[in-house]
């Protein structure tokens, strides 16, 4: 189907004044509600996985699936966009955090188990650090070491592959989360009611903060477990966006939606004025989002919106068009996903009208010269006239 509409904006802005990357969403783990939800900037749910038993953590993977730590079921699961389980690790002791590593393994924090383990895709344990003091979070560093948050220990430690402590920060008041970014560290203190970046920035007076992350725009996303909300604050601590009314929110991450790929355009590159020709548009969305095309035919006609016949993350769309005047036109098309992310443009140049084909039988010409040689001067003038047309 084809529709003619005004072009949408490429930047979405919430009513509270927080500039989100076009199409970005927030993935939220509601522990007491037993679900993981993905919301847009207006707070509308665009995806969810319900029926979970005390989920504690969730992260969106590169393949579009979601890794969920389900403490009440003593497991970590990976689910696809339809909520189907595609991988799981069972038999864990109060898992509270899980990270998919670059090598394909999964790093899991077991709070009551007092350990952090790394398992391969078959679920086999390939590394661990035991005898920890109520660990809440773990991150694998670029140097191969592991950063571990110990809640009752009041510290964050860095351990090497052998489990030896090579660095630590102590005296923390109930630390539950740590994030490494740009050679800096963002720490969340649940009991201390604050999130801080050592010696650089902090926000205090929070109501049971459970998680925080620094966003690409420089703001900070904070989860208040006791307060039942998620807030985004600027560098001065002003709230610029929030989601309230949540049941035991314990983890959140902002998902930066990647735009679809630039479309290809196939169809006739020459034609006649006033004749409709069919063109095919093809694109893909690596995030698996539904999408459509906006098409500029290069003339005075309005922008057209063309929907794929099978919009499932990859889809082909067809549209017909005719031009009213002779000339060369450039068809331009871009792809928009359902969250507003816009691809680069694809192009196809067409010329109206096409050159008239001139097919001549040279065997006939040879026969004419042999049969009527006296007519050659006349034929020469005729051919000269034809080529000048």
Automatic annotation (TrEMBL):
Family annotation (Pfam families): PQQ_2
SUPFAM superfamilies given in the database record: Calcium-dependent phosphotriesterase, PKD domain
Native source organism of the sequence: marine sediment metagenome
Pyrrolo-quinoline quinone repeat domain residues: 34-170
Protein name: Pyrrolo-quinoline quinone repeat domain-containing protein
């Amino acid at each position: 189907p084809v529709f003619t509409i005004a072009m949408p904006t490429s930047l979405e802005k919430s009513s509270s004044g927080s500039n989100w990357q076009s199409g970005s969403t927030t993935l939220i783990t509601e522990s007491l509600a037993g679900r993981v939800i993905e919301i847009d900037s207006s707070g509308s749910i665009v995806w969810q996985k319900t029926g979970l038993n005390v989920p504690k953590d969730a992260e969106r993977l590169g393949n579009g699936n979601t890794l969920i730590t389900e403490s009440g079921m003593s497991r970590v699961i990976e689910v696809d966009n339809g909520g189907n389980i595609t991988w799981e690790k069972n038999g864990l002791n109060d898992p509270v955090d899980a990270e998919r590593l670059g090598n394909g393994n999964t790093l899991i924090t077991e709070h009551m188990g007092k350990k952090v383990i790394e398992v391969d895709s078959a679920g086999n344990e390939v590394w661990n650090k035991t005898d920890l003091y109520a660990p809440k979070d773990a991150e694998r560093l670029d140097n191969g070491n592991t950063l571990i948050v110990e809640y009752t220990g009041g510290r964050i430690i860095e351990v090497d592959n052998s489990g030896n402590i090579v660095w630590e920060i102590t005296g923390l008041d109930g630390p539950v989360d740590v994030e490494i970014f740009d050679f800096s560290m963002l720490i969340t203190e649940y009991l201390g009611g604050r999130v801080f970046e050592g010696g650089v920035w902090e926000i205090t007076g929070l109501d049971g903060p459970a998680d925080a992350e620094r966003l690409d725009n420089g703001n900070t996303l904070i989860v208040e477990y006791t307060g039942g909300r998620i807030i985004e604050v600027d560098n001065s601590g002003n709230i610029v966006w929030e989601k309230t009314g949540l049941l035991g929110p314990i983890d959140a991450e902002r998902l930066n939606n990647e735009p679809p790929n630039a479309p290809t355009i196939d169809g006739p590159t020459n034609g006649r004025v006033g004749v409709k020709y069919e063109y095919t548009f093809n694109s893909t969305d690596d995030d698996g989002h539904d999408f459509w095309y906006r098409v500029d035919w290069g003339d005075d006609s309005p922008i057209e919106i063309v929907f794929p016949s099978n919009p499932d993350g990859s889809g082909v769309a067809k549209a017909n068009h005719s031009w009213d005047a002779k000339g060369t036109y450039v068809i331009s098309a871009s792809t928009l996903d359902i969250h507003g992310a816009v691809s680069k443009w694809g192009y196809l140049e067409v010329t109206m009208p096409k050159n008239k084909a001139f097919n001549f039988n040279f065997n006939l010409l040879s026969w004419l010269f042999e049969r009527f040689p006296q007519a050659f001067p006349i034929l020469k003038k005729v051919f000269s006239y034809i080529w000048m047309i």
